[in-house]
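Sample 3 of the quickstart, ligand QAP:
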Amino acid sequence: MAILTILYYPDPRLYQVAKPVARVDATIRRLVNDMAETMYAVPGIGLAATQVDMHLQVIVIDISEDKSQLQVFINPKIVNSSGSQDYEEGCLSVPGIYENVTRAEKITVEALGVDGKPFKLGAERLLAVCIQHEIDHLKGKVFVEYLSQLKQARIKNKLKKRLRVTM
Ligand code: QAP
Ligand code: CO
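Result:
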């Protein structure tokens, strides 16, 4: 296992669109393990392959208190959504920034598991937010793009300044 390097907003590689996984093989399983290790190390509750510069449709999520419930979504697709909810979101690629985003309240997602088998899952509240947030990453979208241009500009400046301090 290995800790992968996370790309930070506004890195242009975060805007790349991820390709579907053709076959869930050993390479993909290793990517899943490394992504999980990376997410747990920070720690975070969700990570998309895009954020570690791998442009494949792979997501890991663990919203459990004790980090014991890893959920893996390969080639995920939202097939149903309803309602709306506001949630204060953060992102491993946008450290220290938390902002309210409005998304669907309930979703149904279809994906492949790490065993390569298709499954269908209903999700609501935090899990639904997290799945939508991570699927956005696979489409090249970061949550700050839902905010006003002014807020986006402020966040970019803040992160660039911080990068200058820490590097
Ligand atoms: C996406 O986000 C998410 O700023 C996952 O300094 C967030 O794991 C979905 C993190 C909220 C739904 C609701 C953020 C860690 C982790 C930071 C994360 C930070 C350290 C964010
Ligand atoms: Co994110």
